[in-house]
Amino acid sequence: xxxxxxxxxxxxxxxFHISVGTLxxxxxxxxxxxEYTDNKTGYRYYSTRQFECLxxxxxxxxxxxxxxxxxxxxxxxxxxxxxxxxxxxxxxxxSKQKELxxxxxxxxxxxxxxxxxxxxxxxxxxxxxxESRRIAWIENTLSINSYLDLETSIRQLEQHQxxxxxxxxxxxxxxxxxxxxxxxxxxxxKVFLLLDKEDxxxxxxxxxxxxxxxxxxxxxxxKEAFVYYKRMMDFITEQKFRISGFSKEITMIDYGITDDxxxxxxxxxxxxxxxxx
Length: 277
Known about the structure:
Blueprint: E1 6-8, H1 9-15, H2 20-28, E2 36-37, E3 44-47, H3 51-62, H4 67-75, H5 79-118, E4 126-130, E5 133-142, H6 151-158, E6 170-174, H7 177-181, E7 188-195, E8 206-208, E9 211-218, H8 226-238, E10 241-243, E11 248-253, E12 265-274
Antiparallel strand pairs: 1-3, 2-3, 4-9, 5-7, 5-8, 6-7, 6-11, 9-12, 10-12, 11-12
């Protein structure tokens, strides 16, 4: 065959700023067959009449359109079909933009939480006001000797979620009011997810009203928390406060971020009200 007016695959790849491998992939996918293939050398050649088709493929790929959909259009080209495809792709782009906006806000949340943890005043009892918060939780009595002891409960909370717990709110554990009053600080009653505003959680969610809490942050994880609960309960007794709910114990920096245990930060929150006496 006369090869004048034909371009080798490498030259076409350079002209359209794509790789030779991409052109071969288009061929295998049935999108664009070479005008001529030399049986002796295996060299592939393309003609100028294929350039418009290749340009259309490249345009649709930039729009992130699946190859199967592009192949269907290439084989059944039509103005109305193109309009439908572009409208569908526009809807997908808008949806992805919304998803990316949520991810951006969640990254900002995590950065703020880490910065907050790094600037923590440790071993100091404080009284803080918290706005209303949403939590998803399960009742589960457990002792925690390592972060692995939480895994089963986390998987239960994660079940049926489109977004994994990695992108959902912070995991925490809690001790019921009755156990706090009885000095039982080594067994937890519930595992929960403290949800961010952006989180869409499939399952029961409880909204905790605005509350005042006695709080304390310390260097360490759940297994070191016992002694800090005792200090906080002594403070609550001395100040004649009344415990009004379950504790919320959240690791702000843990194995999910660093292996350096000296950088771990955990916060305990115990909700309180003024004694009526």
